[in-house]
Write a structure and sequence with these properties.
This protein has 228 residues and is α+β, with helices and mostly antiparallel strands. It folds into 2 domains: 88 residues, lambda repressor-like DNA-binding domains (434 Repressor (Amino-terminal Domain), Orthogonal Bundle), CATH 1.10.260.40; 91 residues, Immunoglobulins (Immunoglobulin-like, Sandwich), CATH 2.60.40.10. The chain contains 7 helices and 8 strands. It has a 5-stranded mixed sheet, with no helix packed on it. A 3-stranded antiparallel sheet has the order 1-3-6, with no helix packed on it. A hairpin with a 5-residue loop joins strand 7 and strand 8. This is HTH cro/C1-type domain-containing protein.
């Protein structure tokens, strides 16, 4: 029975073409074309590589591609299967018979690895905390509110190691970084400037504006205090 390589070379010779001629049209290197005609598949890295070139070459010569691939599978696909199996055994010798034993040394090594990993994770967290701007949350008051009480309660939270200033006045933080204080307002528009500064001088600022509209009682109280 005629081989795949003989069919290819016969079709090429009937068209009076050289391997270089085929290369110009298909862009397949002549050494691969020669290997296909000679049945030398050791040059190809895998079966997909070989079948791809065979398909292109067959189409160019006007051959029946499906028939040529069927002939090729009958003649050469087993060669690639054997080569792949041999490669697997070489790379993973005795894998199915390998047993893994855990000793106290392995356990100690694993614990040490976890501790080292945790230590570096902690350092990274500290670096991110110090290098970035501190977090600053203002719970109250809300922005652009109108109040009728001349004393406003201020609450919020920032990084524990940061310094908090409200209108350039330092506010003492609680043990969890939260803060709470009261600020006296002036009638009309009031601006509260919150600034949190960490050890590296990184700052986060939040501004709240509050409109204080004094009631008649508050006005009388303020007038009484001013006459004292």
């Amino acid at each position: 029975m005629t081989s795949v390589g003989e069919i290819l070379s016969g079709a090429r010779e009937n068209k009076r073409l050289t391997l270089d001629d085929i290369h110009k049209f298909t862009k397949i290197h002549p050494r691969y074309l020669k290997a296909l005609e000679a049945g030398d598949y050791e040059i190809f890295s895998n079966r997909i590589h070989a079948k791809g070139f065979l398909k292109i070459y067959s189409e160019f010569l006007g051959l029946n591609v499906d028939q040529m691939l069927a002939f090729w599978r009958r003649e050469y696909e087993k060669v690639f299967e054997n080569r792949e199996q041999a490669l697997t055994k070489k790379v993973l010798p005795g894998l199915t018979n390998t047993r893994v034993f855990f000793t106290p040394a392995h356990l100690v090594g694993g614990v040490v690895f976890v501790l080292i990993l945790g230590f570096f994770a902690y350092l990274f967290y500290q670096y991110k905390s110090y290098s970035g701007a501190p977090e600053l949350q203002i719970y109250s008051p809300q922005n652009s509110v109108v109040v009728t009480n001349g004393l406003v309660d201020v609450t919020g939270k920032t990084d524990l190691d940061a310094i908090l200033l409200i209108n350039n006045q330092r506010v003492i933080l609680n043990t969890d970084g939260s803060f709470a204080t009261s600020i006296k307002l002036n009638e009309g528009l009031n601006t509260l400037n919150f600034k949190s500064v960490n050890k590296l001088g990184r700052e986060t600022e939040v501004v709240r504006t509050i409109i204080y509209r004094a009631t008649a009682v508050d006005e009388a109280k303020q007038a009484s205090e001013s006459t004292r």
